[in-house]
Amino acid sequence: MNEKKQVGEKAVEYVKDGMVVGLGTGSTAYYFISKLGELVQQGLSIRGVPTSMQTEQLAKELGIPLVSFNEIEKIDVAVDGADEVDSELNLIKGGGGALLREKIIAASAKTFIIIADSHKNVDTLGAFPLPIEVVPYGFEMTIKHIQNLGGRTKLRQYQGNSFLTDNGNFILDTSFQEIKQPKELEKDLNLIPGVVENGLFVGMADAVITIMDNCIITQVRKEL
What's the CA gap between 214 and 172, in Å, rounded? Predict the structure, then answer.
């Protein structure tokens, strides 16, 4: 079976009746949301908070009820994918361009669960270019500040134009080679004027459902 499908469907075990669920974005989250839609059709009562317009559309097609932040007090569980996961469950996210909304929802969730195929597991973050969301105004100067921290940036393109996030911002895919101090880099990047948010999710994941030696395993930071 497709690894993404395996871990995505495994994550629905952590969704219970009556929960508010953060719905991730990307190819792995797709399988989680699709399975969740099946359960909703069978009678599961949940409400979803999407991390992107793409996910919002998918959830609507599957009949998953959606709510806005002003309608809820908290998110019980959020499930999302990742581009890299290190041994301490730190993450690089943002390959799909939804990192800002993903981080807002992850920070609002009582439990944040990552679903990742075996190829996403790394010893040290950084082989995958770090996505950094920046405002278009003055982005050329923002790039210079990022380069001063050792990053080599590339403005993300889509169909010949600058890629725009759901928030109307640019994404800079930035190579740092090895990120040995992700917590410090996350803070340093967010202090740069023009940076909205970056794709380092440090100490946020409560659990990672992944594949090792052809078996599904769940690595946990805390009891779920």
Answer: 34
CATH of 130-194, one of 3.30.70.260, 3.40.50.150, 3.40.50.720, 3.40.350.10: 3.30.70.260
pLDDT in tens, 23-77: 999 999 999 999 999 999 999 999 999 999 999 999 999 999 999 999 999 999 9
Neighbouring CB atoms inside 10 A of 103's CB total 21
Token couple for 198: 């970056």
Catalytic status, residue 133:
no
Q: Which fold has domain 3-119+202-220?
A: Rossmann fold (3.40.50)
pTM, two decimal places:
0.95
Do residues 142 and 194 lie in contact, with contact meaning Cβ atoms separated by under 8 Å? yes
Please list the residues that pair with 195 across neighbouring strands: 134
Q: Are 135 and 169 in contact (CB under 8 A)?
A: yes
Q: What is the pLDDT of residues 123-153, one digit of tens each?
A: 999 999 999 999 999 999 999 999 999 999 9
Catalytically annotated residue among 9, 56, 102, 133:
102
Largest CA distance in the chain: 54
* Residues 175 and 139 sit within 8 Å (Cβ to Cβ): no
146 Cα distance to chain centroid: 22
